[in-house]
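Tutorial, part two.
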Amino acid sequence: MGTLTLDSTGTAAFSTASLVVGKHSMTVQYAANGAYAGSVASAAGITVNAASPALATTTTQIVSITPLNGPGGSLATVQVTGVPAQAGSVSLLLDGQLAATGALAADGHAAIPLNLSGAGIHAVVASYTGSGLVAPSASPELETTAYLVEPDFTLQATQYQFAANSSGSVIVVPMSIGSVGSWNGTVSLRCASGLPAGYSCSFSPPSVSGSGSTTLTFRPSASIPAAALLLLPCFWLIRKSRWTGIWRALVLAVAFVSFSGCGSGRVDTSATTYIVSVEATNGSLVHSMQIGLKIWTPQ
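Running the prediction step on this input gives:
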């Protein structure tokens, strides 16, 4: 789940928000070095309980990580949806360790200073504590490199929450690449994780040189309705049978039953929120942000 460095007392603390509800087994391994042999701890049992169904659900996403106050300094902006005004706080886990905590503003966002030091890619998770009215939630893991030296770049969007239905809504997200210092490199973009089933993502343009903008488009996959596929053998029989009129009447009746829900009556729907991590890269530099997609599907 992660690798940690021991402090002077031989202790390391690990935090995670990625365990799902249920029972888990965790063990710790110490790697051997020139002075000490390696060792493995006995497995420890961990049980994660589900939040009470009486609590309203929430979603948490990291909408940007931007430079702040010189090398290694960053500002993480987190959005929590479904919360009452100023209810609870958000903690940031950096590479498996608790790094910072901030209170939610009235609109459900928190801007939290974060010290990102060291080369390489870091993993950041935002964890919302919940309250007596709403359940806790955690963002998917987001990968980023630290703002250690210039030039560098930022990745941002003016809007980061969108809603669509399952019948073919296309979602368009304007995004921008900003310059830190005299940045003039070329950044490539991709959807790294969290894309809903049946949706594709594309960028236009797929890369940006220097400062500039791109458009991210989420598009549902085209498909033939299942009921139409079930009727295909009937249309073959229509051509082969001398009882063309009877077959045609039966097919029309089945089609009416299959598709009647589209034209009248009440169709129940449910909403699922997906958090899509969008990643921009240039060589060893990586910066990411998360887009929330609420998809309504018929039950």
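DSSP finds two helices and 21 strands in the chain. In part three we will examine how such features are distributed along the chain.
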